[in-house]
Specification:
Chain lengths: 221, 226, 246
């Protein structure tokens, strides 16, 4: 059993491959999380324009990406665009797909955060001569982010987990590397190793979130 | 032929679409089957775990918390790959369908346990005391007084999470499940034309967009009393 | 004094390092109304909650209506039906109507059918003057009405003893009267009642006995007139004086 799931010899042989994957997963996360946040921020700021011509398309956009599986989006970009003469490569496709998909989720969260800041805060800021943009930047956003911090962190956890989809379009992240190592060794050990790495990497965040969420729900009555 | 015509010819090719429509439809059936199985078993298991946790048996609770944390930490695709490619080494060979179902059901179990549990603990102590003071047992209080209130609180976060996890059925394509994306991908490589992929994309929207819109409505209806 | 219906002996209660009850003896006769007063943190609410074992005493004995409440063989859920309790914060079930609140235990513990339970529940709501609000949920009722529904929920089970834990403290002043009136009615019907409350006026003209607690002990007890006009203990005097200044 240990031989096929946690074989020390295999670990010794393949750890550089898996380690390279871990590095790429971290790098990928460092790129797609800010990209998603940027997309979300754009959507959330657009949502402060309460015009129906902005509101309805925005809602449709968000609902579209909430309904659309991220893997389908990724495959559509990766396998569909070349037919239009546009060959982007796995990495660029992941970046675009995450910008669109996770941006929609971050956008919903940030919008809720902005909604949670009382209108009086903007009025107070404007009364001291701040512009709309300044009031948003210095007064509303800091409070909005603080109010929805657990949700933002929870979504970030999901985004990091989602980077494993990169393996489907040959981005050499942790899961991809582990599967390469698996096909070289005919042994499940590399995948188990990858799972353990994911767990050790994300467990602290999960623990923290579970505490924050329990408190949030209790406070919402 | 204009650019537009060429675009339509490539991405919305009528001949290809007609040919592969049955495949996409059968993929939809598989996706629906998977989704229903995942939602039913995942939510049921999550509720059972949350109720077991309410019994406050220390070692059992540590075990529940560990299992929940585990399935919240691991990417669903990693779990699917682990079950599908890993378990055969232990002498069990689940199909791609079963691997995807089990993996996503475990993930939904973990997330819904957290949400159910948060709902249960958010009910004030006074509700328990009032009920126990009239002679209701622990179990009767949990079922009749606490759970109905807790479930109402948990509906908005639960629907969102359930949708996000159920969309993961597309991951089944990695382990050769003939769901929508799997059918669409193989149709693309057979026809050298992306039209089936566009049909697949449309099929996902047909299935999930109504659910997302319904969730938005539920969210406003059951919104937290602030 | 006839044979006591409530007999608590040498009750001690620890919360971690806190020694909240330090050996309390309390006997209550049938049809008696006992008022428990004392500064906050004196242990009066904890004592009340030990009587129906919502709080587990660290040591001591509690016998209510001949039932040993602390005996592990006692079916605590059936014993609790004989002891009604009313809470400071009402604790009505927000997802049920007033009638639903009153009939839940009738159906689940007393084993009544829905029809029987509804008849008994309506009778209980009638007694607190809220039969016309049977279909309302707690959110649609005022605080005073909610507390009267909570009283109906307890008396519907025909308890032998009623415990009141600061029943009017969470109410706006103008709503207190309606709750006290229901309590007075109950008293006239011969209910045995133990009341923790700051309603000194009510204590003066309705209580048979006033018990003054401080620091986890009963300091002094006696008829209301004696306790209010001529307390023998310094601590009692100080407490009464403080209250009457306000």
């Amino acid at each position: 059993m240990i031989e096929s799931f946690f074989n020390p010899e295999i670990i010794a042989a393949i750890w550089p491959i898996v380690l390279a994957g871990l590095l790429n997963t971290v790098l990928l996360s460092l790129i797609v999380v800010p990209l998603g946040l940027l997309g979300g921020l754009i959507l959330a700021l657009l949502a402060t324009v309460h015009h129906p011509l902005v509101r309805w398309p925005l809602m449709a956009w968000v609902d579209f990406f909430r309904a659309f599986p991220p893997l389908v989006l990724l495959v559509l970009l990766f396998a569909g665009l070349p037919f239009a003469g546009l060959e982007l490569g796995g990495f660029a496709c992941v970046a675009i797909a995450f910008f669109l998909n996770t941006g929609a989720y971050y956008g919903e969260i940030l919008r809720a955060g902005i909604d949670s800041v009382p209108a009086g805060q903007v009025e107070a800021g404007r009364s001291t001569g701040l512009s709309r943009l300044q009031a948003m930047t210095y007064i509303v956003l800091p409070q909005a982010v603080r109010n929805v911090l657990p949700d933002l962190m929870s979504n970030t956890l999901e985004v990091v987990k989602l980077t494993s989809l990169g393996s489907v379009v040959a981005v050499p992240e942790l899961l991809f590397q582990a599967r390469q190592a698996q096909s070289l060794t005919y042994n499940a050990t590399p995948i188990v190793l990858a799972a353990i790495i994911y767990f050790l990497l994300l467990w602290p965040l999960v623990r923290l979130l579970s505490r924050l969420e329990n408190r949030a729900l209790a406070g919402r009555r | 032929m204009s650019t537009w015509d060429r675009f339509v010819e490539t991405f919305f090719n009528a001949k290809v679409m007609v040919k592969y429509l049955p495949d996409i439809l059968s993929g939809m059936v598989v996706t629906i089957e998977l989704a229903v199985l995942i939602v039913l078993s995942g939510l049921f298991a999550g509720l059972v775990l949350a109720l077991l946790r309410a019994l406050a048996i220390r070692p059992l609770n540590w075990l529940i918390i560990f299992v929940v944390d585990l399935f919240r930490s691991l990417p669903p695709l990693v779990i699917i790959v682990l079950i599908y490619f890993g378990l055969p080494a232990a002498g069990v060979s689940p199909s791609g369908f079963v691997s995807t179902w089990l993996s996503l059901a475990f993930v939904l179990m973990a997330f819904s346990e957290e949400i159910f549990w948060a709902g249960i603990t958010s009910i004030p102590k006074g509700q328990w005391e009032a009920s126990r003071s009239t002679g209701l047992s622990f179990g009767q209080t949990l079922i009749n007084v606490v759970l109905p209130q807790a479930l109402r609180l948990t509906i908005p976060p639960l629907t969102n999470r359930t949708i996000a996890i159920t969309k993961g059925t597309a991951l089944g394509t990695v382990v050769a499940v003939a769901e929508i994306l799997g059918q669409a991908s193989s149709a693309v490589s057979n026809s050298y034309n992306p039209s089936p992929l566009m049909m697949g994309a449309a099929a996902y929207l047909v299935l999930f967009l109504p659910v997302v819109v319904a969730a938005r409505w539920i969210e406003t209806k059951f919104a937290w009393k602030r | 004094m006839s044979k006591p219906i409530v007999e608590a002996r040498e009750i001690h209660k620890h919360f971690g390092h806190l020694h909240v009850l330090k050996g309390v003896d309390l006997e209550v006769a049938e049809r008696e109304l006992v008022f428990v007063i004392g500064p906050s943190g004196s242990g009066k609410s904890t004592l009340l909650r030990c009587l129906n074992r919502l709080e587990e005493p660290s040591s001591g004995s509690v016998v209510v209506d001949g039932i040993d409440m602390l005996d592990p063989r006692t079916d605590i859920n059936h014993a609790r039906q004989r002891i009604g309790m009313v809470f400071q914060s009402f604790n009505l079930y927000p997802h049920m109507t007033a009638l639903g609140n009153v009939t839940l235990a009738l159906r689940k513990v007393a084993g009544k059918s829905r029809g029987e339970a509804d008849v008994l529940g309506m009778a209980a709501l009638e007694r607190v003057g809220l039969a016309d609000r049977a279909g309302h949920t707690p959110g649609q009722l005022s605080g005073g009405q909610q507390q009267r529904v909570a009283i109906a929920r307890a008396i519907a089970l025909e308890p032998r003893v009623m415990l009141f834990d600061e029943p009017t403290s969470a109410l706006d002043p103008e709503l207190v009267g309606s709750v006290l009136e229901v309590m007075r009615d109950l008293r006239q019907s011969g209910m045995t009642m133990i009341v923790v409350s700051h309603e000194m006026g009510f204590a003066r003209n309705a209580a048979d006995r006033v018990v003054f607690m401080d620091d986890g002990l009963i300091v002094e007890q006696g008829p209301p007139a004696a306790i209010f006009e001529n307390p023998t203990q310094e601590r009692t005097r100080a407490f009464i004086g403080q209250i009457q200044r306000h």
